C-alpha cells in the first residue's frame, strides 16, 4: 500500500500501517459515514478502523468505493481494519470473519482483529474462553493464508492472553489494539509487545473526549499553540504508537490529523506521562480467563 501521504509503522508482515487512522465507533448510517470518510480522506487519513459490532462495515465499504476515485485513490492506498465480534468467538469465527469480508466488500481486509478475549454469553471466568480464543485464531490464520486477511491481530488482550497466544499460534499477531492515553500508559503490555514484535496500537487516545479538558493537557496545548486533541495524539505517535481518533465532525477530523508538523519537548512528554494512574474509560478485560 502507498503510505506516501501518511507516516506509517512497519508490521511484522512486512506491510506498512499508517500511524493515523479514523476511529469509527458510533459512526453509523450512510450519510454520517460518507461525511466523516470524505473529510478524513481530504485531510490525509489513509486508515479506517471498523468492527462487526460497530454495524458500519457495509456503509464504510460502500462509501469508500464511492469516495476513493473522488480523491484520486485506489483500494491499495487505504488500510482497512475490522474485528471479529465476541458473539462469533470460537466456532463462529470463520463465518464471522467471512461476514465482515462480505459486508466491507473491498476484496480483502488489511487487518482483522479478535475484538475481545472473552466470548459473548460466557462469564469472564468461563473455562471455554481460552479454547474459543484458540479456535478464532486458527480461523483467522486460515483466512490470512488465503490472502483474505492481509494481517491478523488481537484487541483488549492482557499480557497473559498475549503469552497464551504466542505459545500456541502458527502465525504471530501483527497488532494488539488497546486503550492507551496519558492516564493509562500500559507499561507492561507495551513491553510484552516489544518482546514479541507485535505493533502496539492505541484506541481512545482522547479518553473518549474527556481528556481534552484535562488541565495538564490544556497547559501543554497552550504552550505549544496546538489543540488539546493534537497534544494527546502527538504524545502517542511520538512514541511510535499508532492512533485512531474518532470524530464525526469534519473540522475536528481535519484538526486531529495535524500531528506530524510539530514535536512535544521531553518535558511536555514527561508531564503527560506522569498523568498515568491506571484510569480506563473503556471495558476492562483483565478478569477474562
Ligand atoms: P476517542 O477517539 O478517544 O474520542 C472520541 C470522542 O472525542 C468523540 O466523542 C468525539 O466527538 C470527541 N472528539 C474527537 N475529536 C475531538 C477534538 N478535536 N476535540 C474535542 N473532542 C473531540 O474515543 P473512541 O471512539 O473510544 O476511540 C477511538 C476509536 O478507537 C473508536 O472509534 C474505535 O474505532 C476504536 N476503539 C476500539 C476499541 C476496541 O475494543 N478495540 C474500543 C474503543 C475504541 P465528535 O465525534 O463529536 O467529534
From TrEMBL:
<feature type="active site" description="Proton donor">
    <location>
        <position position="54"/>
    </location>
</feature>
<feature type="site" description="Lowers pKa of active site Tyr">
    <location>
        <position position="83"/>
    </location>
</feature>
<protein>
    <submittedName>
        <fullName>Prostaglandin F synthase-like</fullName>
    </submittedName>
</protein>
<dbReference type="InterPro" id="IPR036812">
    <property type="entry name" value="NAD(P)_OxRdtase_dom_sf"/>
</dbReference>
<comment type="similarity">
    <text>Belongs to the aldo/keto reductase family.</text>
</comment>
<feature type="binding site">
    <location>
        <position position="115"/>
    </location>
    <ligand>
        <name>substrate</name>
    </ligand>
</feature>
<dbReference type="GO" id="GO:0016616">
    <property type="term" value="F:oxidoreductase activity, acting on the CH-OH group of donors, NAD or NADP as acceptor"/>
</dbReference>
<dbReference type="InterPro" id="IPR018170">
    <property type="entry name" value="Aldo/ket_reductase_CS"/>
</dbReference>
<dbReference type="Pfam" id="PF00248">
    <property type="entry name" value="Aldo_ket_red"/>
</dbReference>
<dbReference type="InterPro" id="IPR023210">
    <property type="entry name" value="NADP_OxRdtase_dom"/>
</dbReference>
<dbReference type="InterPro" id="IPR020471">
    <property type="entry name" value="AKR"/>
</dbReference>
<feature type="domain" description="NADP-dependent oxidoreductase">
    <location>
        <begin position="20"/>
        <end position="275"/>
    </location>
</feature>
<keyword id="KW-0560">Oxidoreductase</keyword>
Amino acid at each position: 500500500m502507498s503510505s506516501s501521504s501518511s507516516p506509517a509503522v512497519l508490521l511484522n508482515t512486512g506491510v506498512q500501517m499508517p500511524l493515523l487512522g479514523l476511529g469509527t465507533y458510533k459512526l453509523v448510517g450512510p450519510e454520517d459515514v460518507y461525511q466523516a470518510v470524505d473529510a478524513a480522506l481530504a485531510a490525509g487519513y489513509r486508515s479506517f478502523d471498523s468492527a462487526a459490532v460497530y454495524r458500519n462495515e457495509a456503509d464504510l465499504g460502500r462509501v469508500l468505493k464511492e469516495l476513493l476515485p473522488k480523491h484520486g485513490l485506489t483500494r491499495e492506498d487505504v488500510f482497512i481494519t475490522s474485528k471479529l465480534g465476541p458473539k462469533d468467538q470460537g466456532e463462529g469465527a470463520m463465518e464471522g470473519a467471512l461476514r465482515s469480508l462480505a459486508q466491507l466488500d473491498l476484496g480483502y481486509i488489511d487487518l482483522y482483529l479478535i475484538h475481545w478475549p472473552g466470548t459473548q454469553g460466557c462469564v469472564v471466568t468461563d473455562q471455554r474462553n481460552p479454547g474459543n480464543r484458540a479456535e478464532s485464531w486458527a480461523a483467522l490464520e486460515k483466512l490470512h493464508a488465503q490472502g483474505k486477511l492481509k494481517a491478523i491481530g488481537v484487541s483488549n488482550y492482557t499480557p497473559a492472553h498475549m503469552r497464551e497466544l504466542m505459545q500456541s499460534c502458527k502465525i504471530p499477531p501483527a497488532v494488539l489494539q488497546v486503550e492507551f492515553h496519558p492516564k493509562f500508559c500500559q507499561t507492561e503490555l507495551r513491553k510484552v509487545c516489544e518482546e514479541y514484535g507485535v505493533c502496539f496500537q492505541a484506541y481512545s487516545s482522547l479518553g473518549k473526549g474527556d481528556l481534552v479538558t484535562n488541565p495538564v493537557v490544556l497547559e501543554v496545548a497552550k504552550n505549544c499553540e496546538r489543540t488539546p486533541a493534537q497534544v494527546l495524539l502527538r504524545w502517542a505517535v511520538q512514541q511510535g504508537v499508532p492512533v485512531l481518533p474518532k470524530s464525526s465532525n469534519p473540522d475536528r477530523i481535519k484538526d486531529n490529523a495535524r500531528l506530524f508538523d510539530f514535536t512535544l519537548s521531553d518535558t511536555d512528554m514527561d508531564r503527560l506521562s506522569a498523568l498515568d494512574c491506571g484510569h480506563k474509560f473503556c471495558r476492562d478485560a483483565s478478569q477474562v480467563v
